[in-house]
Amino acid sequence: MVDLKGKVALVTGGSRGIGRAIALRLAEHGANVAINFWRNRKAAEETAQAIEQYGVKAAVYRANVADEQQLHKLFEKLEGDFGRLDILVSNAASGVLKPAMELTSKHWQWTLDINAATLLHLVQHSVPMMNKEGGKIIAISSLGSVRALPNYAAVGASKAALESFVRHVAVELAPQNIQVNIVSAGVVDTDALKHFPNRDDMLGSSRQKTPAGRLTSPEDVADVALFMVSEYSKMIIGQTITVDGGYSVVA
Ligand SMILES: NC(=O)c1ccc[n+]([C@@H]2O[C@H](COP(=O)([O-])OP(=O)(O)OC[C@H]3O[C@@H](n4cnc5c(N)ncnc54)[C@H](OP(=O)(O)O)[C@@H]3O)[C@@H](O)[C@H]2O)c1
User: Which residue, of 91, 140, 203, 225, has the greatest Cβ tally within 10 A?
Assistant: First the structure.
């Protein structure tokens, strides 16, 4: 049994999709959970209510994770509301979905900033709030960091940068007993997929080619995230753990 009683977690993009499932899984195991959102307050408040049903404290912070000033304010609120941080889940992501030949420098910069540079800022704010017992940091990535997917050149490159950054910062922080890792997922049918021009093909071919016989669900990702923030994963440092029902190992 994973016991997170008394711990404080922050899940960026924790209002919907994979972030919501992770926030609820952490709350189910006793953590107080702060979630961040950007555009959709109603979804965030509904998720906060669901978190509180586990008898833990919830908080909702609006901030665009790509904006350093807004992140700074978010952490001031977190410090005031909870006074500590034990678990950071960097889940919110965005980016431009286009073929490489149609990408502009602006598309590229925005995508790299929001998906990779954001973790730098989140880590720099989080570590001072983690106490001597240490902490757990996970970031959410996708198979597009190591495979070529249609329309995914910028986002794939940003996720590759994210994974590389995690390896480096994980080594830096391991002596402080702060573990940093990636959980990478196969195709998960969330609202994010509505932005993909090739959504139906992605879902169809993932279902067909996944050895486990079904798509990865948000809860599948949350189960692995729970393991990664538990004591049972303490010697896993700087790794990318893939949750995809075997999709990525099939030739
Ligand atoms: N879905 C997949 O197939 C899949 C596969 C592998 C990895 N992933 C990764 O899993 C993570 C979550 O994806 P998802 O599919 O669950 O997405 P989703 O359902 O679209 O949810 C996105 C969440 O991020 C928040 N968000 C978006 N932009 C934000 C910003 N600029 N600042 C703060 N919050 C922001 C959204 O809040 P608002 O609604 O308020 O904007 C929402 O809570 C991402 O890192 C994604 O790359 C997804």
Answer: 225
The CA 2 to ligand 1 mean position distance, Å, reads: 25
Question: Collapsing DSSP states into helix, strand and coil, what is residue 239?
Answer: coil
Give residue-wise pLDDT tens across range 112-126: 999 999 999 999 999
Q: Which of 38, 46, 75, 244 to mutate to test the pocket of ligand 1 (most atoms within 8 A of CB)?
A: 38
- Check residue 246 and report its DSSP letter: T
Whole-number Å distance, alpha carbon 192 to ligand 1 midpoint, is 6
Q: Angle at the Cα of 100 (from 96 to 106), degrees rounded to 5?
A: 50
Q: Where are the domains of the chain?
A: 8-249
Beta-carbon contacts of 234 under 8 Å, excluding residues fewer than 6 positions away, are: 179
pTM value is: 0.98
- How do strand 32-37 and strand 8-11 relate by DSSP bridges? parallel
d(CA 192, CA 143): 15
Query: Which CATH entry fits the domain spanning 8-249: 3.40.50.720, 3.40.50.20, 3.90.1300.10, 3.30.360.10?
Result: 3.40.50.720
- Quote the CA–CA distance of 217 and 99 in Å, as a whole number: 27
